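Narrative summary of target 7.
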Amino acid sequence: MARVKISEFRAKKMLLGDAYKGISIRPEAGAIPATGKWVAKVDQGVKKRAKQGLVSMGGKSALAKAINGWKKKGFSQFIVEPFVVHKPEEERYLSLERVRNGIRVLYAKEGGIEIETHPESVQTFIIRDSKDVVDVAKKTGIPQTFFEKLVEMFNRDFFAFLEINPLVVQKGNAIPLDAAGLVDSTASFFVKNSWTDADLVRPGAKHIREKHVEALAATTPAALSLRVLNKDGSIFFLLSGGGGSVVIADEASLRLPSSAIGNYGEYSGGPTREETYLYAKEIIELMLVSKSKKKALVIAGGVANFTDIKQTFAGIIDALSETAARLRQAKIKVFVRRGGPNEKAGLAAMEAFLKKERLFGSVYGSDAVITQAIEEATEYVQAPGGR
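Modeled conformation, tokenized:
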């Protein structure tokens, strides 16, 4: 089972039906109501949104300003709901999780964003059949009709986990203010009129360079990936070679603070010269805008089986050529360790280019240990002054 996050909007719509008045705002649809008091939130599976400034309250102009700010941070999916007037003592915590012996229910009479500071207040129940549903409703004071519908949806729509915090209980009614759910992605073929792949969300915001690489990867059978770890890091990677990439990244994490590592990802699976050029451009541009005072680019990996070193290095050289002056100005050095088909020709071309452009750090082939380049790159960024 692949447990994946589902949007808060869809989870609430499935539970409450037409009674739910929330609005999903995405790039292609959704608008903030002109009148009334509303609550806006990022709807991309982000935890502790209030503490991160990803929740806003007010009228149309205030929420529009908040959403535009979130968009600048890379978020693209939001939810706008009517503001619910309630007292803090009406807030409850409730979660359901599928476990081996049934559905585990966690409940606390005092809910809200500080629930984690009071773990002793959480009660645990196990639901195995309909009698247990009625029993849990009675013991917790959750309206029985609401709770029965919640458990029915949980089973019918292949939920693996659902957390409602807070759940407001007032005058015999239950109102879920915040909800976070995980569903079984392999069940998308079986669910009917509830959720689709479009309702599944990726947590957090994507950096613009990640989006570019993702779009590029969709056009090629080669494997291209990028994850931005710290946009102001000092070490940036152009990695290739599966397990070899992991070894190199691990070595970097042992030698440097985690904040020094700008990115992780790799190009593999035999990308063309053009594809490697486009991929390398994204990492180079990411590195150039980093605010770190001293930076290095590490081009490294294991010994490739069929990725052509000469061809891919030609693509990287194309990208470096376009930015050589800016790289020199930023005092960036390039450190290389790679092996595979056409290794000697590729390494020779890379070394000649780096020396010509005064970007040379070091260049090694498969006869050097796999961590050689990262060791020297680490020494470079940690050394005071020049090298």
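The longest strand covers residues 159-170.
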